C-alpha cells in the first residue's frame, strides 16, 4: 500500500511539547499525517503549521472521540485507503504500523485493534492500577457492546475504508473506545487484535487518563444509552 | 388576603406573561403553562383546596402534596434539560467538525487534485488561514 494513502489520525490536545517527536517518524515514513488539534490552548497551532502535516483545528475542545471522528471524516472525504488511530503523546510505536495494516491490506479485517495483553512482555509494562482498570474496562465494554477483546481501551487501531465509511462516533469523550466496539458490531465489521507495545513515559503517564476518570467513562456510556 | 398571596399571584402572572411574550413554544407547552398559572392562582386564593386533594390521595397536608409533586417536577425538568444539553452538544460537535474540515488544507501529495471530494466549499490552499 502506498504510504501516502494511509492516513494517520492523531488527536492532539495541548501536546505541543511532544508533537515534533511523535510526528516526525510518521512524516519520514511517507504517511499522510492528519493532526486534529482539539482546541489546544498551547502553541500547538504554530508548531503544526511549521510541519508537513494536515492540521485540522477544532475551534473549541470537543474531546478525543470527536477529534477522531473529524480525522476519519477528513480521511473519508479524501479517499484514504486505510486509517490509523495514533496517540500524540509518544506512547505508540510507529514501527508497529505496518503490522497493524497487514490485516487491512489482505482484506482479512475492517478494523485492527491494538492490544497490550496479548504478549506477557507488553502486559508487564502496564502499571498495575491501570491493569486493574483496563480489565474492568474489558468487562464493561463487553456488557455494553457485546464484543470481547483482550484490551478495549487501546488507542492504536487500523481501519479499512469500509470501516471509516460506517463508523460514526457520537461519544465525544473517552467513552468512544467502547463506542467503536458497538459500531463494529452494529455494522457487522470484521475485526482482529494485534499485539502492540505501549511505552509509558513519564510524560504520557502525567498526561494520560487518571484512574478516577474510568467512572466518568462508565457514566457517559450509560447516559449515551438512555438518551439515544 | 395575606401579603404572601399577593406575592405568589404576582409571581405566577409575571411568569405567565414573560413566557408568552418572550418565548415561543409548542402548543402543548403553552397549554401546560396556562394550566399551571390558572391552577396556581386558584390554590393561592383557596389554599384549603390543596389540603382537600392531599387528603384524598393519602397525604396529610396540601403543602406536603405540593412539595412531593415539585420534587418529581424538578427531576423531570432536569432530565429534559440534560437531554436538550446533549442534543446541543452533539450539534455543536457536528458544526465545529464541518467548520474545521472546511478550513483544512488538502492532503500534501494531492494539492490541485481535489476533484474527488464532496466538500461544499473549496478553499484556496495558499490563502492565509484565519484565526
Give a description of the structure:
The complex is a heterodimer of chains A (228) and B (131). In chain A, helix 2 links the parallel strand 2 and strand 3 (54-58). Chain A has 228 residues and is an alpha/beta fold. Helix content of chain A is 45%, strand content 16%. Chain A has a seven-stranded mixed β-sheet, with helices on both faces. Chain B is mainly α and 131 residues long. Chain B is built from four helices and no strands. The chains are: A alpha/beta (228), B mainly alpha (131). The interface between A and B is medium-sized, with 27 and 25 residues.
Features:
heterodimer, A: 228 residues, alpha/beta, Spore Coat Polysaccharide Biosynthesis Protein SpsA, Chain A, seven-stranded mixed beta sheet, 10 helices, globular, B: 131 residues, mainly alpha, elongated
Question: What's this entry about, in short?
Answer:
The complex is a heterodimer of chains A (228) and B (131). Chain A is α/β, with parallel strands linked by helices and 228 residues long.
- Summed over residues and divided by their number, the pLDDT of chain A gives a mean of 87
Overall shape of chain B:
elongated
The quaternary structure here is heterodimer
Q: Please give the order of strands in the largest beta sheet of chain A.
A: 3-2-1-4-6-5-7
Q: Major β-sheet of chain A, in short?
A: 7 strands, mixed
Q: How many separate structural domains of chain B?
A: 1
Q: Tell me how many strands of chain B there are.
A: 0
Number of helices of chain B: 4
Query: Which superfamily, in CATH terms, is the homologous superfamily of chain A?
Result: Spore Coat Polysaccharide Biosynthesis Protein SpsA, Chain A
Strand/helix succession of chain B: HHHH
Question: Using only CA atoms, what is the Rg of chain A?
Answer: 16 Å
Radius of gyration of chain B: 27 Å
Question: How many β strands of chain A by DSSP?
Answer: 7
Question: Structural class per helix/strand content of chain A?
Answer: alpha/beta
Q: What is the straight-line distance between the termini of chain B?
A: 62 Å
Instruction: Count interface residues per chain for the largest interface.
Output: A-B, 27 and 25 residues
**Order of SSEs of chain A:** EHEHEHEHEHHEHHEHH
Q: How many domains make up the 3D coordinates of chain A?
A: 1
Q: Which regions of chain A are unreliable across 5 or more consecutive residues at pLDDT < 50?
A: none
**Helix fraction of chain B?**
55-70%
**How many strands, what sense, and barrel or not for the largest sheet of chain B?**
none
Amino acid at each position: 500500500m502506498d504510504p501516502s494513502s494511509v492516513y494517520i489520525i492523531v488527536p492532539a490536545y495541548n501536546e505541543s511539547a511532544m508533537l515534533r517527536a511523535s510526528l516526525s517518524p510518521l512524516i519520514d515514513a511517507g504517511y499522510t499525517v492528519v493532526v486534529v488539534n482539539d482546541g489546544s490552548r498551547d502553541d500547538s497551532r504554530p508548531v503544526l503549521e511549521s510541519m508537513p502535516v494536515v492540521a485540522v483545528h477544532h475551534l473549541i475542545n470537543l474531546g478525543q472521540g470527536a477529534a477522531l471522528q473529524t480525522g476519519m471524516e477528513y480521511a473519508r472525504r479524501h479517499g484514504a485507503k486505510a486509517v490509523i488511530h495514533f496517540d500524540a503523546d509518544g506512547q505508540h510505536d510507529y514501527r508497529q504500523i505496518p503490522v497493524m495494516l497487514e490485516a487491512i491490506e489482505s482484506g482479512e479485517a475492517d478494523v485492527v485493534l491494538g492490544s497490550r495483553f496479548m504478549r506477557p512482555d507488553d502486559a508487564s509494562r502496564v502499571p498495575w492500577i491501570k491493569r486493574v482498570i483496563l480489565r474492568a474496562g474489558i468487562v464493561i465494554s463487553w456488557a455494553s457492546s457485546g464484543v470481547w477483546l483482550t484490551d478495549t481501551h487501546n488507542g492504536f487501531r487500523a481501519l479499512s475504508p469500509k470501516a471509516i465509511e460506517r463508523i460514526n462516533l457520537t461519544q465525544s469523550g473517552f467513552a468512544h473506545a467502547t463506542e467503536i466496539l458497538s459500531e463494529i458490531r452494529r455494522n457487522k465489521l470484521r475485526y482482529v487484535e494485534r499485539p502492540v507495545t505501549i511505552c509509558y513515559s513519564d510524560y504520557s503517564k502525567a498526561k494520560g487518563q487518571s484512574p478516577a476518570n474510568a467512572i466518568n467513562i462508565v457514566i457517559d456510556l450509560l447516559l449515551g444509552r438512555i438518551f439515544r | 388576603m395575606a401579603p404572601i398571596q399577593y406575592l405568589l399571584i404576582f409571581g405566577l402572572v409575571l411568569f405567565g406573561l414573560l413566557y408568552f411574550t418572550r418565548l415561543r413554544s409548542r402548543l402543548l407547552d403553552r397549554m401546560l403553562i396556562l394550566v399551571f398559572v390558572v391552577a396556581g392562582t386558584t390554590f393561592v386564593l383557596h389554599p384549603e383546596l390543596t389540603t382537600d386533594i392531599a387528603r384524598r390521595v393519602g397525604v396529610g397536608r396540601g403543602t406536603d402534596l405540593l412539595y412531593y409533586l415539585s420534587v418529581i417536577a424538578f427531576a423531570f425538568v432536569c432530565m429534559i434539560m440534560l437531554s436538550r444539553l446533549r442534543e446541543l452538544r452533539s450539534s455543536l460537535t457536528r458544526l465545529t467538525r464541518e467548520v474545521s474540515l472546511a478550513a483544512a488544507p488538502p492532503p500534501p501529495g494531492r494539492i490541485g487534485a481535489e476533484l474527488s471530494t464532496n466538500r461544499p466549499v473549496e478553499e484556496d490552499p495558499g490563502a492565509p488561514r484565519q484565526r
